[in-house]
Amino acid sequence: MNPMSxxxxxxxxxxxxxxxxxxxxxxxxxxxxAEMHAFPTSxxxxxxxxxxxxxxxxxxxxxxxxxxxxxxxRGLLDALAMSISIALQWGVPLESITSKMRxxxxxxxxxxxxxxxxxxxGNKPYVTTTSVADYIGAYLDYRFxxxxxxxxxxxxxxxxxxxDKS
Length: 166
Known about the structure:
With about 170 residues, this protein is an alpha+beta fold. It has helices at about 70-90, 95-100, 130-145, 150-155; strands at about 15-20, 25-30, 35, 45-55, 60-65, 110, 125-130.
């Protein structure tokens, strides 16, 4: 690919959508015992990531939809998704993007609800994250290693393997 040309996606394309939640750390109030979030100014994240793929199975765009209509975080996630999509279409390797997102620290953080089972590190039965950006980077690295969709994902979703097209 010419480094100075944009590789747009076809009008109809395969995609995978993933729902996740990051409820944030929950603490108990010392006085009354009620649960309270450690970061009351950071919203509970309830979102969907959709990754659209090129004909060869490489990631070409992402959409991130947060449940909070018109919220600040929704706008930021939308801008992040557009930036990632444009960078991918201009030939920036996915790993170059996600390496900058990983291990960023801001709330909410903690356990991720809905993460794919294979993402958990070591013997953990769950996935933890240090921020929403960290989780999005980790998910994209997991689902699209080296920028290409995992073969088992394509099979599970009934997608055609680009190498098997006749």
